[in-house]
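Quick note —
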Amino acid sequence: MNILDNWRKRHGGGQSAPLASAAGSDPEGVAELLSECALLRVRAGQGGLQLDDSPASLEALDQLPPRWRDDPEELPWLGNDAGLYLGTVIVRTVPGAAWHIWPGGHPVVRLVSGREIRVVEAGLDWAVTGAPELSQVYAEAAEA
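Predicted structure written out below.
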């Protein structure tokens, strides 16, 4: 079950309850949903890291040995979670940053400047290659 299925289940909706429209009417609910990142939180915990939605936790994630690369089936899921976690940290700590859901359901973080950060793509790149570092993407967002 993906995050959209979880959201629909919680909100009693089927296909008629798109996440994109919920971002405007229930931004806190959408932010809560996107912050779950269950697989990443489990893998980080196994590495001795407690994710607390802080910029320092992104730096700590960047330092973890990338054991997830040994499992090609898990890699995209972990990368997706890493991107959603990156977005969560940005939304919770960068003034004016907010989740924006494109009509197709793709989450991005929109900064006050209007710039959109494709956090899921950044998380996937990080999981696969280690670059860009999550803390680097955060630092660029915090400066904008």
